[in-house]
Design a protein that fits this description.
The chain is mostly helical. About 80% of the residues lie in helices and about 0% in strands. The relative contact order is 0.22.
Length: about 260
């Protein structure tokens, strides 16, 4: 019972922190949640817990923007490719006959997650912003979508390479926030479908995910309050440094396990 209570408290604190990051920066809830939860469980077990908080917060984010339908039409090839990539990744990267919880995933999954987290942290600190020409978006969007889906199906993190790609489209701030919400919503639903197909999205996982909504919401409210009282840029830098540290930790742990 004490072990269960400790794990429950750990999960609740993780979602409060992930919600706090979301409240301050407008993104990062799934990334932070998976990064921290994977210290105690397989990445796709962690992903199963974030389905409800991630889906609802991202639906809210995309619904508050000014241009949902035009963005949907523009990003549709990438979004559909994300679903395809998630399905292909779930089929290829999880062992046949597995439960879909991530325990049967390839042994290098923690290393992939570590590289992903550290890479995104370095990219965020560098301030680099690429630019995708209009002529290249026909193939670059679907490519980014397939890669995002394939990575999400293994690690539970769907911020790479979709977020850098969307940032490279030269959208205004409001459209970018809404585009990120749209991309993350589709990615979350695709991941949920893949987990359900593999057996990882079952009654216990769904209940745990629903319960995780409360601490995540509390964290978001606290983050929005904090955003008014501190520099968002300082917070973002701390966030990216933390991702690098977590990523390096995952890589070291994977190397020692191997």
């Amino acid at each position: 019972m004490a072990v269960m209570d400790t794990m429950t408290l750990f999960i609740a604190l993780v979602f409060v922190l992930a919600g706090l990051v979301k409240g301050v920066t407008g993104m990062g809830l799934p990334t932070v949640a998976v990064a921290l939860l994977s210290l105690k469980m397989a990445p796709l077990e962690a992903a199963a817990l974030l389905i409800v908080p991630s889906a609802l917060t991202n639906v809210w984010q995309l619904a508050t923007g000014p241009a949902l339908y035009p963005l949907w039409r523009r990003l549709r090839p990438m979004l559909l490719a994300t679903c395809v990539g998630t399905a292909i990744g779930g089929w290829l990267l999880l062992a046949p006959g597995g439960t879909g919880t991530g325990a049967e995933a390839a042994v290098w999954t923690p290393a992939v997650l570590g590289v992903l987290l550290a890479g995104y942290g370095v990219l965020g600190l560098s301030g680099w912003r690429g630019k995708v020409p209009a002529a290249a978006q026909r193939w670059a969007g679907p490519l980014a979508g397939v890669a995002t889906g394939a990575i999400a199906s293994t690690t539970g993190v769907f911020i790479m390479p979709s977020a850098p790609y969307l940032q490279a489209l030269d959208l205004n701030r409001e459209d970018l926030v809404q585009a990120l919400g749209l991309s993350f919503t589709v990615s979350t639903l695709a991941l949920a479908a893949m987990l359900a197909w593999r057996g990882g999205w079952h009654a216990n996982a769904a209940t745990g995910s629903l319960l995780a909504l409360l601490p995540a919401a509390l964290g978001i409210v606290a983050g929005q309050w904090l955003r008014q009282r501190m520099s968002a840029e300082v917070f973002r830098r701390c966030f990216f440094f933390a991702l690098i540290g977590l990523g390096v930790h995952q890589c070291v742990r994977a190397a020692m396990a191997g």
